[in-house]
Each structure stands twice: as structure tokens, then as C-alpha cells.
Design a protein that fits this description.
- The chain has 291 residues and is mostly helical.
- The protein has ten helices and no strands.
- The mean pLDDT is 89.
Length: 291
């Protein structure tokens, strides 16, 4: 109880604690970002083999989950010890290389850990010591995970988007962030808005402009933030997506016709709206002369 009182009475201690927790969560997110798509692929392969009436046991001899097998160097396969898995510090201590074979370790691992910690601190500073902060942290961590998975694989796993959607609807029963009426309409409008755009685009061009995971993610954001915030999320994500896509084409880092995942832009816009949505609306009304 003394710890909770200290967190409530000392904003500095709260931010420090949340930052440290964010580092540890970021380390776990690195595991989820890498392993969950592999688990999905293995599951799909097994289902296909079962459908074809083939023996799937010999195809997947080793159990692969978020905890098994133990993390190891992808090159020399040496196990990563607990001391070598301390967020950020282990990376710096090892010089960004495997302790055994000295193969370079991607800098994205500490970057994700630091980013998770920093965004968590922003959330804690904005909401303070409250249940709203806890809920916003969960949403933030989920959005980071979805962003990186979609960036890597162009997949938005149902195992994250659907619990996020139902979690937002459940929280609305207590009106923690928004009330149930606002949340339910937000979920419906979020899904149907992109669903309509998808089918209209396909009807006009004969191509698929986005995936169903994007519909579910916007539905989840609508459930968490309410239908009033959906226009901001859509506008912000579309603007950022257009700018980033144009820059990639100009710099020739992306070939024309190559799909660009929209999930990261939705997630970023959703998080910005979570923190500064009301201020964005206020500034818009002032700028447009409506206030």
C-alpha cells in the first residue's frame, strides 16, 4: 500500500516507475513482434496440412510459443541469458553484438524498448495516477506491437485487435475513457467507414486498397476513444500516410504499386488522439473561426 501511496503522491516517482515498466514491457513486445507472426504462419500451415489430410506432426517438431523455445542468437544459436536480456543495458554492455559469435544485433530492439518507455511516460504524465492511465498504457503498448507487426508483415493479428476492441467496449461500461453509447457507435462507425472505403475502392479499381485488420483496428480505436474522435484519426492517418508514401516514392525506397501498411498510421493517429485529441479539436475550431 505504501508503494501505491508513493506513486499517487509523487509524480516524479510515478514517471520513473512507469518508464522502467515501459522498458520491460518493450522487451516483451520485441518477443511478441517477432514470434506472433511466426506462430500464425505455423498455425496456418498446420491447418492447411490437416485440411489436405496430411500428417502435420512431422512438419512442426518443435513447440513454438511466446515463451518456447528459449531466445537464442539467430546465427550461432547460443541461448540468451537473463543478464543478456536486460532492456537497453544489455545491448549497450554487449556493444550491440552477440556475446558468443559477435554477430551484430539489430538496433530496433533497444529502440522499441526506449520508445515504449518514453510513450508510457507521456501517458503517465497526461493522465496521472489513475485507472485511466492504466487503460491508456495498455492501449499504447498494444498499438506499438500492432505497428511493428504490420510494418514487418502487413498483418494486424486478430489475437490483438479483437481483444483490444472488446476491451474498449468493456471499459466503456464504467465510462473510464468514454461512455458505452459513444464507444459502441465508435466501434461500429470505425469498422464500417473503412469497410465502405475498401469495397468502393475495389469496385472502382478492381484492387484491394487495405486489409480487414485495418477495419478492426479503427473499430477498436473507436471503442476506446469514441466516435467523435474518428474523423481526427482518419484525417491524421491519411495525411501522414500520404506524406510518408510520397517521400518513399521520391527517395525510391518504395516501388510504385508496392503496398504500404496502413496500420502504423492508424495506430500513430490513434495514440496522438488519445493524448491530444481534445486539444486538436479545440485548435481546429479556433483556426477555422468556429469558436
Amino acid at each position: 500500500m505504501a508503494l501505491f501511496e508513493l506513486l499517487q503522491d509523487s509524480p516524479s516517482f510515478l514517471l520513473l516507475t512507469v518508464g522502467l515498466v515501459g522498458l520491460m514491457v518493450g522487451s516483451f513486445l520485441n518477443v511478441v513482434i517477432y514470434r506472433l507472426p511466426v506462430m500464425m504462419e505455423k498455425s496456418w500451415r498446420q491447418e492447411c496440412l490437416e485440411y489436405l489430410g496430411q500428417d502435420s506432426k512431422s512438419e512442426e517438431p518443435e513447440e513454438f510459443t511466446l515463451s518456447l523455445p528459449r531466445s537464442s542468437c539467430p546465427k550461432c544459436k547460443s541461448p540468451i541469458t537473463a543478464l543478456q536480456n536486460i532492456p537497453v543495458l544489455s545491448y549497450l554492455f554487449l556493444g550491440g553484438k552477440c556475446a558468443n559469435c559477435k554477430t551484430a544485433i539489430s538496433a530496433r530492439y533497444p529502440i522499441i524498448e526506449i520508445t515504449t518507455a518514453l510513450l508510457s511516460i507521456v501517458v503517465a504524465n497526461h493522465f496521472g495516477y489513475s485507472l485511466e492511465m492504466v487503460a491508456a498504457l495498455f492501449l499504447t503498448w498494444s498499438l506499438i506491437c500492432l505497428t511493428m507487426i504490420d510494418y514487418d508483415t502487413q498483418l494486424l493479428p486478430d489475437s490483438i485487435t479483437l481483444p483490444l476492441l472488446w476491451g474498449g467496449l468493456f471499459l466503456s461500461l464504467s465510462s473510464l475513457l468514454v461512455d458505452s453509447h459513444t464507444s459502441i457507435i465508435g466501434a461500429i462507425a470505425g469498422y464500417l467507414s473503412l469497410w465502405s472505403v475498401y469495397h468502393l475502392f475495389r469496385l472502382v479499381t478492381g484492387k484491394e486498397g487495405m486489409g480487414y485488420g485495418d477495419f478492426k483496428l479503427l473499430a477498436a480505436l473507436g471503442a476506446w476513444l469514441g466516435w467523435q474522435m474518428l474523423p481526427i484519426i482518419i484525417i491524421l492517418s491519411s495525411l501522414v500516410g500520404a506524406v510518408v508514401g510520397s517521400l518513399l516514392l521520391i527517395t525510391q525506397r518504395q516501388k510504385r504499386g508496392t503496398p504500404i501498411p496502413f496500420g502504423p498510421f492508424l495506430a500513430a493517429a490513434g495514440w496522438l488522439t488519445l493524448i491530444w485529441g481534445d486539444e486538436i479539436i479545440k485548435q481546429y475550431f479556433i483556426f477555422s473561426g468556429l469558436s
